[in-house]
Structure formats: C-alpha cells, structure tokens
Amino acid sequence: xxxxxxxxxxxxxxxxxxxxxxxxxxxxxxxxxxxxxxxxxxxxxxxxxxxxxxxxxxxxxxxxxxxxxxxxxxxxxxxxxxxxxxxxxxxxxxxxxxxxxxxxxxxxxxxxxxxxxxxxxxxxxxxxxxxxxxxxxxxxxxxxxxxxxxxxxxxxxxxxxxxxxxxxxxxxxxxxxxxxxxxxxxxxxxxxxxxxxxxxxxxxxxxxxxxxxxxxxxxxxxxxxxxxxxxxxxxxxxxxxxxxxxxxxxxxx
Amino acid sequence: xxxxxxxxxxxxxxxxxxxxxxxxxxxxxxxxxxxxxxxxxxxxxxxxxxxxxxxxxxxxxxxxxxxxxxxxxxxxxxxxxxxxxxxxxxxxxxxxxxxxxxxxxxxxxxxxxxxxxxxxxxxxxxxxxxxxxxxxxxxxxxxxxxxxxxxxxxxxxxxxxxxxxxxxxxxxxxxxxxxxxxxxxxxxxxxxxxxxxxxxxxxxxxxxxxxxxxxxxxxxxxxxxxxxxxxxxxxxxxxxxxxxxxxx
Lengths: 253, 248
Fold this sequence. Notes:
The structure holds two protein chains of two kinds.
Chain A: H1 2-30, H2 32-52, H3 82-89, E1 96-101, E2 107-110, H4 111-116, E3 119-127, E4 133-141, H5 143-150, E5 158-167, E6 170-177, H6 178-181, E7 187-189, E8 191-192, E9 195-196, E10 206-208, E11 221-227, H7 240-245
Parallel strand pairs in A: 1-11
Antiparallel strand pairs in A: 1-2, 3-4, 4-8, 5-6, 5-11, 7-10, 8-9
Chain B: E1 5-6, E2 12-15, H1 19-45, E3 48-49, E4 63-64, H2 70-79, H3 87-114, H4 117-122, H5 131-142, H6 157-180, H7 183-188, H8 191-196, H9 199-237, E5 240-242
Antiparallel strand pairs in B: 1-2, 2-5, 3-4
Helix pairs in contact in B: 1-3, 3-6, 6-9
C-alpha cells in the first residue's frame, strides 16, 4: 500500500525535521547576524509595552495577609569581602551611598540620613527571572527624591548602580532608565518585612524597581551614577548578567 | 468546499484552505515548535509550579519536575531550545516568538471573520452537540471514517470542537497567562492577575494549557496520518484537497 510508505516517510521526515529544526535553532542562536534578529525581541517588547501601556502604572500592592511566609534570598547572600564584612561588623556606621555622575551636587549619604528621608512602604511581589515569586514589605526613600536632591543634569539618560558584591572579581552592577528611576514605586529599600534589611537580602540598601525582574533589583548598593550612555559601563549592555550571559536589559517581561 | 472540479482521473478535488489559513497554519507550526522548546528551557530554571500570588522554594508546589515520569523528562530534554541549559537564550526565543504567535493569531482571526472561514467552517450548531450526534461522530472516528459522504469538505463536530478549543481557548490562554507573568504588564493591566488568581497561578495555567496544546498536536498529527497524510498536508500547502474515494 503506497499510502503506508507515505505515512512512514512522513513520520521519519517529521522526526528528522524536528531534530534538524532543533539543531537549526541552536545554530541560529550562535550566528552573530541571526542573533541580532533573535535579540530584537527585547526592543520590540519594550517598545510595545512602553507604547501601549501607561508608563506610570503602579504594580499591585498586597495586604500583610498576602505576604510570603518566607522571603527567599537569591544571588549573592553575603558579599564576604573584607571591606563589606568590616562594614557589617560596624553596623554600617562607615557606609556612604555615593550619588554622582551627571548630577549638579554629588552626594555622600549616610545610612541614618537615608533612613530619615521621607520613605515609602510597599508590599509588592518580587519575580525572579527563573520563575518564582515572593511577596514582601519594603521600605525606603524614593530613588527619584534622591536624584532630585543631587540635581540630575539634562544629559543624563540612565541610572547605574554599583554594588558591594563581587562577580568574577568585579562589583555587581545594574542600570535602569529614567522612566523607571522616577517611578513612584522605585525605592532604595533599607527595610524588609518591618526589619532592617539583612545581609542575605542586600543590606544596607537595595534597589526596588518593581516593574522589572529580580536581577534588576541591585543589592548592596554602594554608588548611584547618572550617565548619558551605557557604553562605558562594563561591556556596554548595562548590567552584569546582560554583559555576561545575554539577559535582557529590559526585564519588564 | 465550493467549486468541485473533475481531474482526468475523476478524483473529486476541492479548494479546502484559503491562503490566509495556510500561511497562519505554517507560521504557527514553526512558532509552536519554538515556543514549546524554549518554554521547556524556561521551566527548567525553576521546575516547580504553585497556586496563588507567590510561590518559591519554601512554599508548597502542586507539582515539581522530579515527580514526573522519566520518559516525560527525557522527552522534555530532547525538545529543549537551546539544547544545553541557557535561560537567557530560551527567554530570547520565547519572548520574540510570543510576538509572532500573538500577532499571527490576531491577523488570522481578523481575516477569518472577514472571509467568513470561522462562521462557515467552525461555527458549532446546537444540533451538532446533541449526545446522539457526538456519539455518532465518535463511532465514525473509531471506524476511521472522518468525512460525511454528503458534505465531505465540512468539518465534523469533534474536529470543530478541537479547532475552536485551540484557536479560541488554548492559544489565547497561553498568551494571556504569558502576559500575566510580566511584572510590567501586571502594573499596566492588573486584571490579568485577577482573572487567573495571581502570577503563580497564571504560570501554572500556562503549563497546563501548553500540555493541552501538545495533546492537540499529537491528536492532530495522528488524524492527519490516518486521514491520508499526503492529501491532508498538500491541502494545507496548495489548498487543493482530493475527496477521499470512499466518500467521493
């Protein structure tokens, strides 16, 4: 029966085709030109989201009853460098948050000063790029207030965070644009769940940039710099994971 | 379905699928393949599923990858894009082709309303849903008779229901639960979270609907082969479908 041969050929063809497609996908991802197309999805998604949705929309906030019983920590759980360990031992008395770059008045802020600033308290959901979520209560001043105090210059386009934890020997870094930097829920958190932020969750200060995935929420923030371009930061893609393992810089999805 | 023509071999042929249907079908074939493969890659980053708003390692998962049978895990490993674990590249594939899937479906829906493909071929009539009719169609399927001799080009009720479920339920649920996992979309459209009961529920439903799609694909491929693979595949490429001899 000729149709049987056709069926067999079809199944065999489909199997070979599947294998070829899978290998093909990996070849495409390895080819620099094809990779450019593959990586266009990030700009397309960011462009669509920014164009079609309200740029000032707030993420949902939750009630205390809706919080995760345990807020797991992730990434670096203790920077462990001599400098950081000394700061912990000293209860961050020597900690200074440096705000610089394209600002009129560079700042050097102590932890008590940061805690005295008007703060925002928000119970929000933290979404890791891996897929899990945890809901916790964060408290800290708005990043926008700090940037305004420093006097952001008109050429500034991005805000870069440099951290105390080391990855491959260099400090972790991340960056966001001004839309997220001045978003009302973007805060520099110094408390989690009504307690002073612990080392595992980024003491003394971590960024909360609620409309993006967890790796954007820099922990152990030491310096905040306003820049005109990300070209001079790391390898130019705006963050440690972006530079080293091709994570999207725009992590709103 | 209209315009029967007679070929020299007196095989009845009909124009079965419009260009729009054929283009959408094959775009979706490639896209589904990429979405399933890259989706498995993303799942492997945290292979635990939860119900509710939050869910992480200390919370109770309703299912985890290590509870699944070995052959399922082997199959998942075979289909993963990229082949070796790389969450960043899986996400790149997934989030680019999510746009292809969504806009292709949107375009297909608009065109199929205009050219009346939906109204003509997929509309389910109340009479077709009577238990007697459905039982009859199940029996016909089990006897490998897939076409009504009186209207060989028309879809039978099981076919209609599976296509309607896929086009109007499964793929839209995939898209909406996918959007519900985006923290920025949750800010912009908080109703996404409300309809699915939280981000982790949306993530669970995303994988359940994906499983539904995989089952559809398996049944679809099996029936294409049983109904006459060459004729069926050709009809989706050229549009021309020969009416099988047993019903012609």
